[in-house]
Each structure stands twice: as structure tokens, then as C-alpha cells.
Design goal:
Length: about 210
């Protein structure tokens, strides 16, 4: 949630202030993009794997946040923006929501079930849910103070930086789990085999 998903959903009318969109219209548009994002996720998660979706999601979300930061006026009290800038801002916000919901959000639910054994999976899932809820609460709480102090764009610069770092983390430390047993996944964690595309040759069935 540090990628700004909860903030964009809760403060949609504030982020899109000046585009002429009503809060109800913003909510409907966001909902549509979340639903639409479920389709490519469902079609690609088992075909291309988890890491590609994570990477595409992080890169796309980072770029959209950068565009949002550029398009937002440093003068938060501005009454309106040009029609072109308004549509670009709307497209960037919806694009960020789309990319978040094709990778970062849904893939997390998949891999957290694949990383942990059955005896600790419940505890691990609880820890993940707590972390997501806590992070979301912090992001929502600091949005307005940061906006008052530095402007709206400062929030999205921060989200872009966090998402970019998340992409680097996924690239260097998140192994691919598609089609692998739990033992293979744990071995990949130990050997970092996914970095060079190789997997340690072991007879997993005999271990």
C-alpha cells in the first residue's frame, strides 16, 4: 500500500481536483479499472509467472506516478487545468490503479501462499495483512500533512520512489514460483538461482 493505491482511492476527488470530475465519477472510473485489471492478471499469472507481473506492475506504476507528479500543479488551490492536462492526469491516475492491480496487489496474495509451509501459512498471512493495513493507514494519515507542507505532487514523488525501489527488490530478491514445488522455491531462496535463470539440479522428490 506504500505504492499509493489506498490514497488514490480515498482521495480521488482531491487528486483529480481541477479536472471537473465529480467524486462519484472518480469512484466509478477507479472501480472499472480495478475490474479490468483482473482480466490480464488472470490470463497471464500462470502463463508468464509472478516476477514478470511484479516487474511490469512496478515499472508501470512508477511511470504513472511520475506523470501525475508532473501534471499536478504546485499551486494546490488552482481552480482548473487545461482539458489536455486534465485528461492526461486522469489517464495517469487510472493507469497507476491499473498497473497496481495487475501485479502488486493480486500477485502478493498468490506468492504469500507459495512461500510458506502449511503450518506457518496462517501466521504469515496474518502478518502480511497486518503490514498492508498498517502501511495503508500510515499513507492515508500522512497524505494531507504532506500536501499542506509540500503540495500534492510530493506524495506522488514519494510513491514513485517507493515503487521503483520495490521493483529493484523484486528483480534481485523475489524468485519465480510458477510451476515449482515448495521445496524448489525454498532452494531458490537459498541459492538465488533465479538471478541467472538457472535452478539447482536436485532430485526434489527424493529429498
Amino acid at each position: 500500500m506504500a505504492c499509493g493505491a489506498s490514497v488514490m482511492e480515498a482521495y480521488a476527488s482531491s487528486v483529480l481536483y481541477g479536472t471537473g470530475l465529480s467524486p462519484n465519477a472518480s469512484a466509478v472510473i477507479f472501480g472499472l479499472f480495478i475490474v479490468v485489471a483482473c482480466v490480464p492478471f488472470a490470463l497471464t499469472v500462470d502463463k508468464y509467472g509472478r516476477r514478470p507481473l511484479f516487474m511490469v506492475s512496478c515499472v508501470g506504476t512508477t511511470l504513472c506516478h511520475v506523470f501525475i507528479a508532473v501534471l499536478l500543479s504546485p499551486e494546490d488551490g488552482v481552480e482548473s487545468m487545461s482539458a489536455v492536462d486534465g485528461w492526461l492526469l486522469l489517464a495517469s491516475v487510472c493507469g497507476a490503479e491499473f498497473f497496481i492491480n495487475i501485479g502488486l496487489m493480486p500477485v502478493l496474495s498468490v506468492v504469500q501462499c507459495e512461500y510458506f509451509p502449511s503450518d506457518t501459512r496462517g501466521l504469515a498471512n496474518s502478518a502480511v495483512v497486518f503490514t498492508i493495513t498498517f502501511t495503508s493507514t500510515i499513507m492515508l494519515k500522512i497524505y494531507q500533512p504532506v500536501t499542506d507542507a509540500y503540495g500534492k505532487r510530493a506524495n506522488f514523488i514519494g510513491y514513485a520512489a517507493i515503487t521503483f525501489l520495490g521493483g529493484l527488490f523484486c528483480y534481485f530478491w523475489v524468485p519465480e514460483t510458477k510451476g515449482k514445488s515448495f521445496l524448489q522455491i525454498q532452494t531458490d531462496f537459498e541459492t538465488y538461482a533465479w538471478r541467472n535463470g538457472k535452478t539447482r539440479r536436485r532430485n526434489y522428490e527424493r529429498i
